[in-house]
Amino acid sequence: MDIAKEIEELTNQALQEIAALGELKALEGWRVLYLGKKSQLTGLLRGLAQLPVEERRAAGALTNELKRLLESSLEEKRAALQSAQVAALQEQGRLDVTLPGRPLLQGRLHLTTQVVRQICDIFKSLGFQVVEGPEVEWDYYNFEALNIPKDHPARDMWDTFWVDYTNEQGQRPMLLRTHTSPMQIRVMEKTSPPVRVVVPGKVYRYEATDATHESMFYQIEGLAVDKGITFADLKGCLFEFARRLYGPDRKARFRCDYFPFVEPGVEMAIDCFACTGAGCRLCSNTGWIEILGAGMVHPDVLRRVNYDPEVYTGFAFGLGVERIPILRYGIEDIRLFYSNDLRFLKQF
Fold it and tell me: Within the chain, which residues score under 50 in pLDDT?
């Protein structure tokens, strides 16, 4: 067969096939077929040695020209296919500015923090200051200064986490505070009357956890001391607090209770906001919900901080923060507050 004609047929066939290719993967197959070590072009180049000298020069020129043509066609086709691929990706990933944006996740305050701030805002509007104190406390402030001496049976009311610390007398006077009441003493030691403070913070109890008990929770303590403060002031202040927190139609009830650092001591309850006093599961069919404990500051507590109980009187109160949203939202397990379950926390 005439070598010039064979080269012409090979050229037409190769160019037609490369023009029809639409993928880079297929282009590699074309390269192997027409420019590989076992391709027809390679066979032509090897066969040049068998030709007469007169024909070898002309056939060699045609074969080398074919090789250059195929190589340039390969590069042009590869560039075209790559450009088409990039354009397709750009079109596929193009941003449509008319579409609504993707919403970003928003952070929020923990439910307990929300309630603490709400309560503190109410008392600040009533003239109270917000102060905080240490969570690792001395036995003196947590118990003794609050009229709870060593070996007093009232200490059984607070299951205590004691810190592994022993003083020179062999005593263990340091603990995780069991209530926020120690700040009553700390504030009065440094402040001359009148005193009006609320103390939010964590407290700790060494007890088994269940749906209604947790070893760490929040309390808010309140204290007011001045000349002429009476039990009527206590009732008026706490009743106003309940109305602002639970609604203007709330009724309040005070019943006797015992706390070592107040005399007299009371528990305060409000009429059930779910059944308005008729009786339901939330209020155990009593019509009332207990929300806090309070009382008039014991004279011995005032003497301990060098306040003259003949001149100054005061009232104190304390409430568990988690109890408020538990009642408000019908939460059945206090452990949900600190389990870090976003399904629960996102609801508030």
Answer: 1
